[in-house]
Amino acid sequence: MSAGLIGSTTPLVDRYDLALVDLDGVAYKGHEPIVHASDSLTEARGRGMRLVFVTNNASREPGSVADQLTGLGIATEPAEVMTAAQAAAQLLRTRLPEGAKVLVVGGAGLVTAVREAGYQVVTSADDEPDAVAQGFAPEVGWNQLAQAAYAIERGAWHVASNLDLSIPTAHGIAPGNGSLVAAVRAATGVTPDSAGKPAPTMYHMAVERAGAREALVVGDRLDTDLAGARSGGFAGLHVLTGVNSARDDVLAVPGERPHFIGADLRSLLEAHPEPEVGAEGWWTCREASARVVDGALELGRGSSTDDLDVVRAACAAAWAAVDAGGSVDPASVPELAVAEG
Prior knowledge:
Elements: H1 12-15, E1 18-21, E2 28-29, E3 32-33, H2 37-46, E4 50-55, H3 62-71, E5 81-83, H4 84-93, E6 101-105, H5 108-116, E7 120-122, E8 131-134, H6 142-153, E9 157-160, E10 166-169, E11 172-175, H7 177-188, E12 193-194, H8 201-210, E13 215-219, H9 222-232, E14 235-239, H10 246-250, E15 260-262, E16 276-277, E17 283-285, E18 288-293, E19 296-299, H11 308-323
Parallel strand pairs: 1-4, 1-13, 4-5, 6-7, 6-8, 8-9, 9-12, 13-14, 14-15
Antiparallel strand pairs: 2-3, 10-11, 16-17, 17-18, 18-19
Helix pairs in contact: 4-5, 6-7
Protein name: HAD-IIA family hydrolase
GO molecular function, one term: phosphatase activity
Keywords: Hydrolase
């Protein structure tokens, strides 16, 4: 698949039969809806696109997530939710026999997934667990982190549901599971194995479950959602409703680049133009243009920094410069805030 942006002359909903949709920052933010999410996903379903909600959140059970989505106007069944807790349980199966003891640090979703995988859930290092499964939950505190550290120091295998350093909430950006995992890692010196994004494990599980022909990853984070798409060989759509911005897209490292960029989930229902290179190094996307000269990004005369096509042209120019062995000065890249339509 292309290392840069790709185009689609037809709406993405008509090109891909399955969307692997992230939750926080895409379908909702904290407990609040995201504008256009419900209407766009409902229309996508009505036009034949199946949905699986794939989340690095391991604290909640699929049924709870489905209930929240349904309450926000996105009708969802538990089978349409794939969590990092389920992926962590699958990872445990690669090394541990059924019946092994697992110390779970996290919420109900992780406890349920580990039990359903056939393991005995324990809460203390004194129970001599074979592994520690760690996932985010708001109630995780020092004692649970300490028990995890004690068990890992005694030889337990450390499995993290994900390594997200932060999570978006209705109040702002808060510490994520990766920050809590970092505390245990700092105490033990042991780097855990991770089941969540950017590992593509959950994406492959979801595609296999759905029997999809061609899947599209939809996310708001470059280092997890879109990196997982790249590593798993899936096309990735970055929507600008969560953690990462359009400016982040321009400066993205190759392994985290999206294939498509949209302001929000309405972009599922739209065609996406592909930037083209022209004379003097200018990359154009419809009326927008950009190029890199001596490491500085230049936008075409008259280009508005709230135009999504400018973002696409800027990404194409910056990525081409980097792929050719050059660099792009971050100071030359403006914020590129995309105006809502």
